[in-house]
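[agent] plan:
  1. take the single chain provided in the ticket
  2. run structure prediction with default settings
  3. attach structure tokens to the ticket
  4. add a short note for the reviewer (M.T.)
[agent] executing step 1
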Amino acid sequence: MKAKEQRTEKRREKHAEKNLAKHAEARTAEQPAHILAGRHAIVEAIKAGRGINRILLADGLHGNSVHELRDLAREHGITVDVVGRAKLDAAVPEGVRHQGALAYVAPVAYVAVEEIIASARERGEDPLLLLLDGIEDPQNLGALLRTADAAGVHGILLPRRHSVPLTETVARVSAGALEYVPVARIGNIAQTMRALKEQGFWIAGTDMAGEEMYDRANLTGALVLVIGSEGRGMSRLTRDLCDFTVRLPMHGKINSLNASVAGAILMYEALRQRTAKAAVQHG
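[agent] step 2 finished; step 3 output follows
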């Protein structure tokens, strides 16, 4: 009887071990939060307005679902890269079927520029936007998001090309600010700037040789603050389209500041001026 009980207990232990192995295998097969695998899943995500940074398709992939996916991506301005199937296999956990397609998904959904502007005006505030021209460091983007939330910036405009997208690293560095500061993905920077000017926005660019000292320039009203890349600053066309440029005082040996630091100074100067203006109007 005792031997029978021991055999029963061993069977139970073996069964429990199998269950644990199954659960561990299931966890391994789960997709990471930043990756979406499978053609149908990606198509539906695009239709639902998910923030998708980039799509990878396996070389030689054909069929109606592939054409639909490519068309949707083109319509929404999403970059599609054709790669070897081995790269897709390496990008997903073992057990996840990618069907020759996967997408890198932003931690939050991008929003339309018009939504950001409308939200600011519904609150009775002049929209303050931050346009990032060539920011490629996720640490800088995360820090800028964090300051934007603290300084009352209504939204950030992020170009699709030559800019870091919203990633898990950006979300982590932002310390939660990404949940509160809306980000719009824009295509052509010049077209966006021209369209905003037509809506009454003034555009101020940051430049080492700026026309005005940052604290002397008028940073009130509907305004776009442009922050250039970490090394090159603003592109020539972006600079030419600015209504005015501002500079920060540099008294040391180094002639430039980190993009997130320069952006923080300008955002808080804009906040200071707007707060003072509001106090006068309501005083």
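[agent] step 4 note for reviewer: The chain has a mean pLDDT of 86.
[agent] ticket updated
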